[in-house]
Amino acid sequence: MLTLPHRAMIWLLTIGLAPGLTWSAGGADDLPPADDPQTNPFALAPMDLCARGDDAFLSGRLHGALDLQVDWHGGDMDCGGMLRPDDGGIRLVFAAPRTGERLLIVLGIAGRLDELDTGERATNITIVDESGKRFFSTGGRRLCWSVIEKVRPVADLDARVVQVDGEVYCSASLPSLSDNGSVALRDMHYSGRVLLNAAGPG
To answer: What is the pTM of this model?
Structure first.
């Protein structure tokens, strides 16, 4: 049986996404290093930041091992975000609406918060497919970039939360860490929320 490495399982269980998920990318060595803030997607993030508004979203198309249109909005999905440590950027997390087994998409965007809306930003992407027990990731390779359109406060929440609007694109597909599959992203736009006083190890 393939098993998900321990730190990844703890993170997924903590945010309530994968109570029965087990798989492996061939072992922990295939996952990004736990102490690397540029590549480790498994830092805790609050996942209820979209519940109090309808303007957050993730939309686009996945091709390849996952073939589906993504059109998630507001309180119908789970989303969250946090600062990466040492001004290393932000992490945005989007989870599919709660209809059976779920899909999770994590964007790790490099750059200081006050500089995110200037130029292209290297973006690590992790996709967790709970139903297929698969894990896709850029793995720290420079395959994807974000163009941030706007960073703005969220009017109905306190000053600790900001909304980040942007587009992410990739020069190549994201490889699977459990088989020979891959996923390509097309026309991926997002509006996510970041809790400014939450910063994890990566």
So the answer is: 0.78
